[in-house]
Amino acid sequence: MAAHFFTFIVLRVLNISLLVITALLLSMAVQAHNHDAATNLENVEAFQSIEPSAKSGNPAAQRLLASMYEHGEGVKQNLAQAIHWYTQAAEREDDIAQFYLGYLNYQGVGLPINLETAFKWFEKAAKQGNPDFQYNIGNLHRYGEGTAKDIQPALRWYLLAAEQGQVNAQQDLAALYLNGSEVTKDLVKAYVWQAIANTNLYDVDILEKSPLEEIAEQMSSDQLSQAKKQVTQWINDHPELY
Predict the structure, then answer these.
(1) Residue from 136, 201, 134, 214 nearest 171 by CA
(2) What is the 3-state composition of the chain as percent helix, strand, coil, each rounded to the nearest 5?
(3) Which class is domain 133-242?
(4) Can you give the residue ranges of every domain in the chain?
């Protein structure tokens, strides 16, 4: 009798728990639906407010409109319209739109892959000074994507990006000068760029042996002293980055 009563209580508790869980899940689903509906309404309103400005020739608005068409935010997804508006903005020298046009051509999103066209737009974006875009075009030159493989223009772009604090460019310069397979080996330059990169990295202290230590082990005391002076001078010359 007691066993049957205990079983009845357990089953009742389980049933109540299932009801609670079901109610909770339904509540969460309703909240998610309401949130999505609100977000969709905001996106539609944003699209409607941006579209007139885009049509009047504002490149930033054209780029935003392109992004909304690309991702289907506030309007039905339409890659042809996205490409159209990115092109409008890119032709008005919007560097982000130029970069995105390069990306779409590079990845073949909404149109066939075309590395030469991708390179053209990536280069236009890089020439406007964004260090991330400069690093990107440096990579294309280095590995010969959409253009001839050539380390010299790659170096120039890496240097432009590195001087603006682009850490990947700084690390690549350090590796290039350390390895000496693509450029003339230069331990001082390798140390300088790796040390500068380290000022923006958070995990260098937990490495068993940092790249900087590996470079330093190959240097003479005079080379190391010279490199450290150059690092200090570079940091002093770039206070905006620190």
Answers:
(1) 201
(2) 75, 0, 25
(3) mainly alpha
(4) 133-242
d(CA 74, CA 94): 22
213: tokens are 């230590």
- The pLDDT averaged over each successive group of 10 residues in the chain (242 residues) is 45 48 53 58 88 96 96 95 97 98 97 97 98 98 98 98 97 97 98 94 57 94 97 95 88
Q: Which residue in this structure is represented by tokens 């300088």?
A: 192
Residue 107 structure tokens: 């990845």
Tell me the residue type at 215. Answer: I
Contact 209, 218 (CB under 8 A): no
Q: What is the dihedral of CA 105, 111, 114, 120, to 10 degrees?
A: -40
Instruction: Residue 166: count other Cβ atoms within 10 Å of its Cβ.
Output: 24
